[in-house]
Fold:
Amino acid sequence: MTITDNLLFRVLYIDLNKFKYWVESKPELFEEYIGGTGVAIRLLTEECPKNADPLGPENVIVFAIGPLTVVYPLASKTVALFKSPLTGNLGESHAGGRSAMAIRMAGYGAIVIKGASEVPIILDIRRDKVEFHDASALWGMHSTYTVGRIVREKFGIPGFRTIMRIGRAGEKLIRYASVVTETYRHFGRLGLGAVLGSKKIKAIIITGKRNINIANPKEYRELYAEIYNAAVKSPVMKKYHDLGTPANVIPLNEIKALPTRNLTSSYFEGAETISGEYLAEHFLGRRVACAHCPVGCIHLAALREPYEDEPYFYKTKMISYDYELIYSLGSMLGISNSQGLLKLIDEIETEGLDAMSTGVVLAWATEAYHKGLISENETMGLKLTWGDYKTYIKAIKYLIRQPNEFYKTLALGSEAAAKKYGGLDFALSFGGNEMPGYHTGPAAHIGHLLGSRHSHLDMGGYSLDQKLLKTGEQLPPEEIAKRLLSEEEWRQILSSLVVCFFARGIYTPEITAKTLKTLGYNLTEEDLKEIGRKIHREKYKFKIREGFDPHKLRIPERIFETPTSHGKIDKKMFLEIVEHILKLINI
Structure:
């Protein structure tokens, strides 16, 4: 191969134990595993020792981008791999914004962070230089918004820049704390915020500015135009631009696939007032986009409220909302008050929590309270009630403070809380990670259970469920297993490029091979599929090395009790599909 950008092969290593850094060029690694997730899982496996404490200095964080970053539309994500404090094995989180562009403009394909600082710090990465700044004054600061503003003002560096930071949730090592980047994007899932908190990293700034050469400029321009036009003219992308992912609220509710009140129902009678259409009509302030994305799917609500001590003076907050937040903090908690939902989202953003895990944890706690498994002694006087957003905001404040054993346990996740207080049958976590917002049928939940990061973005089972509902086709368990695994293997390629999964219909194997050819890679469609399989198996090897046993996974009984659009999930068939997938993976 003749790769035009050799800087993509560079890996920046940062050792916080010694406040040292160095750069290594690893062309063979990037040529074999492409970039992104593929490169990151190899680096994580090499650098993170077996049985490392996820919150100990031995844990490692790997940020990685791909060859399409900055070069092609919608290749806008950064992947982060680490050992998850929530599940105890592989942690993988993706974020948009400007982080991928900044990393590439700084001249790196990946960044590896090892060790832990004894004092709070800001990591300042500028091309070939890394500086370590004292962040003691920012530690304990209430708002992630404020931290971002202060860092921007203090480090107003020219060039392409990203600012990642944690909130108090990360400082308090809440196992599902997130990392905020560019205010409205996140490394949300599986507790990266807690890992940064354990390393005393309050914020990371990455800045760079340079040019990238293209191996085949003419073919590149033609292919770029083809992909760009496909993106801006696609009906799916138009939906994401007009309404964002909240466009899914009404359709999922109509087919009875919207998890409601801790999945005691899959239909929410209050869905209309928290739908994408309603929020766009009444609250939409503006749309923003990730770097190098023509779609602009990020929707910001303008919430206008009076000051407490000045009733005739108003402040306006811009609050990012999407489907997963609406599900987890809306229907899952029985909240139909749109302003209340936005206030709850804002509280989550301020503290730096993952919205999905927080919503599911609070949903479990509400049902446990109603069933008498916990009382006001545990909740510290809070009467957890479906739809009561004000009480949920108070609960989040207690979750951050952790004033008693109950809230300390909630900070470990819904599975840990249910094991201690009861209610495992309705603790909706899969492999330790709280469920996303799809009760579409068996394929969705199998994806949550067996996906390498226990996410709906792994196997795309929600999409298969809906396709089968539309066609009426009845597939045998082995065929469902093959389709789910094939989808996850291909998604390893997309997350190694690194391409936004919203563009998966555009970046087909044929188009993907063409894009790589313009950059000097000689990979066929079959080559790519084989690399995807290899990356997937590497991720599973890491999970199993760290104690993951797919044969002992707990399945919440609630998913078999509440009907989906296909009716109730047949447990026998569900387990058959699981076994077929494990055989295909050869476990």
